[in-house]
Write a structure and sequence with these properties.
Mean pLDDT of chain A: 88
Radius of gyration of chain B: 26 Å
CATH topology of chain A: ABC transporter involved in vitamin B12 uptake, BtuC
Helix content of chain B: 25-40%
Mean pLDDT of chain B: 85
Strand content of chain A: under 5%
Structural class of chain B: alpha/beta
Number of strands of chain B: 24
Oligomer: heterodimer
Largest sheet of chain A: 2 strands, antiparallel
Strand content of chain B: 25-35%
Strand order of the largest sheet of chain B: 6-9-10-3-11-12
CATH superfamily of the largest domain in chain B: P-loop containing nucleotide triphosphate hydrolases
Shape of chain A: globular
Chain lengths: 352, 511
Amino acid sequence: MSALRQRIDSVLASFARAPELGLVSILVVLSIYAAVALPAFRTTSNADQILSNSTIIAILALAETLVLLTRQIDLSVGATLGLCAYIVGSALGHVGGDPPLAILMALGLGGVLGLGNALLVDLVRMPAIIATLATLSIYGGLQVVVTNGSQLYAYQLPHWLTTLYATNWGPLPAFACVALVLVVILTVCVQMLRWGRDLYAMGSNPEAAAVTGLPVRRRTYEAFIACGALSGFAGLLYAAQYGNVDATAGNGIELTAIAAAVIGGVSLFGGSGTPAGAALGALLLIEIENILAIEKISIFAQQLLQGLAIVASVAVYALVRRYAQRLGARRRRLQGAGPLPTATIEPAEAHP
Amino acid sequence: MPDSEPPPAAPAVELRDIRHGFEGVQALRGVSFEVNAGEVVGLIGENGAGKSTLVKILTGVLQPDEGTILLEGEQVRFANPRAARGAGIAAMYQEPLIFPDLSLAENIFVGRQPARSAFVDWGEMRDQARALLKRLGIELDPGTPARDLSVAERQLVEIAKALSLGARIVILDEPTAVLSTREVDRLLEIVRRLREQGITLIYITHRLDEVMQVTDRVVVLRDGEKVADVRTAETSIRELVRVMVGQELAALEQRRREAKPSDDIVLDVRGLTRYGYYEGVSFQVHRGEILGVFGLVGAGRTEVAQSLFGIDPIDAGEIRLDGRPFVPRSPRQAMKHGIAYLPENRLLNGLVAPLSIRLNMTMTIWQLLAVLGIVRERPIDRAVDELANRVRLQRGSRRRPASTLSGGNQQKVVLSKWLATHPKVLILDEPTHGIDVGAKADVLRIVLDHANAGVGVVVISSELEEIQDLSDRILVMRTGSVSGEFVTPVEKDDVLHAAYGLQRRAVEAAG
């Protein structure tokens, strides 16, 4: 085997372990290309716009990731976002309210809607895809009922909320900072707390998780509630970004969020993927959208390209992973008949 | 009990008169034995002897109907697996459940990862995992994702987990059936090592050579009763086989064979290999011949059959069908070339349970019966009547879902489906497993009828007496290769010895 081949093998193996690396390289290459080819792309304001526009999708993708990790799915995140955007927005419009109260309301309402999903999955024992398809309709329907044909306008919202989208905190847009903070918090939760490790274990092998005595039911509730709460929070940002909230707010956005998570390496079969990956997936989707818009390519072609991006990323990820696995198998074959590397057996130490 | 210190000589585990019945079948009829601390006891017996039930009782999965379990002299009762685990009993199964996406180390500690102020301490976890593996004498990177571990390595992870949970009694339930020779040696080494560390082991296996190598004592079960309990040094493999299968020698019934197998070879397999499953498998099947394939679970019998039928890939070797080279690519193509395969698990792979009986029976020939892609009713009915007659299917509407039939009749439906294709080679995988006596007789008769009609039949079975009676020749497989070939009539012992991996002569020397 040539040195180059070995080099390629090791790069592929590390991509298989951390698909985020691949995603980052694609983002970098794409950005360099766009920066060179498109003057309009190069501006600071455009970069800020990409980051800010990614935030809502990124937060929904983060929310979805928590549920996907456990081998469940939540199709109702878009409806949750829409309903929370309207209700929380109106409440703020009526009584006013400062940021902590607003955030609390959005998280709380979203969490309650997430609890609804969890109850259907756990108590009624509906498959998550059916349960959340139903709540997608129910929450979406509620949104139509409460808006009652009217809509919420920017002037009805508190000033701090409507100006947030255009605010910069330090060098970054406020929206991007919020997304970044959430990525960090969620990364800590799923990588460093037993709580998050339980989610990975459940998705990786549900049967083994139950046999091992992990609190599977409890974690299912927590994952759905956290997903709902984050979606509710994304609803608050939706109101901030668009100012107008009507019955159609958030329609269909769940599919983009799931796409972002999948592109980011989160497996629909549970147990693998990271919050950072999901957020990067959202960033990639929005950047592609941005480039296409600058190139003045029609919205229809954008949709087509988004689909192709999903196919490409999942296919590449699967291929790389399979290649890495075959590599592992070949290495074993080379070592001899059995795959067990053996240490020299020393005299047994004293054990209690 | 503050004042009743158990005497130091109390055995680590003692079973007293354990009885357990399930749906009218008495799986254990009063089994008593003890295992001393630091002892390795082999538990052997044929399929259905009650070994698994005993393991389930010891691990709290099942509760005995009668009888008591004592741990170090104290009576215990395990309401659930958690209770047994808490008392220091751990079981390791053939194919442990792992979390493929988590690392080896995390698989050991999942749910109780070492943590420092709520944060998982990854370094500490790796160190502890490495220490546990070292205790077993293995060097594996604790960071390896579990999906990259072999079955043998997964077993070791399970043992490491048991140790980390403080298990003092470890039950190994047929661990070696799925391992290569080298891996088996490794595992036996670990068993010895654990014994040195004062762990008590119950070792369940089908392989008697391992029993002789590693155990201190052997307990033999037959039909839910203990039939022997001997020190390993004072027995021999030959003796153990004799006790295990009982005294009765299989009466070689005269088979109703009208036609002798012809000299034409219909299926010729040479050096067939699928790495990791079986290697260098060669055999021939003549027209009108019944070839029995015997072997322990995991010997590679089903895997060979699945490759022949195009379900699993083949790495090397050649197949000739009627003298012409044949490369199985898919079940559909294998079927077109005249191969039929009745799978081992009829509910999983054979029957489309919610579909009607008649559609299940004719599934393989819909295309033949169709005109311009439309399947007509009448030819189906005709085919169903003819097939039902041939397999003596229970009367009643053929439009009911197949799931409403009894096990035996379900098997006949699946069998019909394959007979409908008029195969040249009929491969049956455990065709009589789990069906009642009447249906069993019918299935065997169908096999004979087809052999008489010139079909080459391959019967894979774990019931030795059955294929002894039925087959013209018996092929024995062991750990992925052919370990013996016998022309019937043949003595049960000879076949068993080939299946357990012993030379006849060596056995005589040992006995």
